[in-house]
Amino acid sequence: xxxxxxxxxxxxxxxxxxxxxxxxLALLVHTLLVAALAFSVNWHASxxxxxxxxxxxxxxxxxxxxxxxxxxxxxxxxxxxxxxxVPRAEPEPQKIPDASIAIEKAKKEEAKREQLKxxxxxxxxxxxxEKERKAEEALVEAHERNIKRILGQAEATGSxxxxxxxxxxxxxxDGYGGRVKAxxxxxxxxxxxxxxxxxxxxxEVRCAPDGTIVSRKIVKSSKVPSWDEAVxxxxxxxxxxxxxxxxxxxxxxxxxxxxRD
Length: 261
Description:
By secondary structure, this protein is mainly alpha-helical. It is built from five helices and three strands. The longest helix has 55 residues, at 99-153.
């Protein structure tokens, strides 16, 4: 081998060899692989050897209970309570009035009616009395006018404004007033012990020529109404005054009365 050939082989790849050796090697490897697989399958198909053994525990142990399925608790349903009934408003029992109260009330109402009736009757009597008084005064005035007319025709000596009935002015006798009071006073009904002192009432009395009392009125009160009324009632009961010494009755008199005379 020359130097040129050695130098070229060292730096250039060698030329490929033939395929024969590689193919033989591949067939050998595949044959061994198939044999190994066949042997392996045959070994696993054989029955394995069975070995038995008993296990003993050093201390006896009790098996745990089997698991028992526990049913889940059922939900407790709270009963729905109905709303309480609304209490009905009971009507208040009607109070029965006591019979005594009703009677007492009726008596009071009756008394009020009686008082009202008495007031109406008193007012009516007062009105009638006032009417009678005015009628009597009108009668007395008419009578006096007639007397004046008659006396004027008979040449009476009195003045035009005179209220007398005599032909001439003439005062009652000294004892005439006492005689009149003596006739009136026994007719006075009054409890003297019911008052204090000795009150004096002055009364004007008008009379007809025959002595008939035509009217009377208090001209000065005694300040004791009950005494004034008692005097007026006594004059009304007297009705006719006595005649004076000359046989005449004064047309106008002023009388004085006191309870302790």
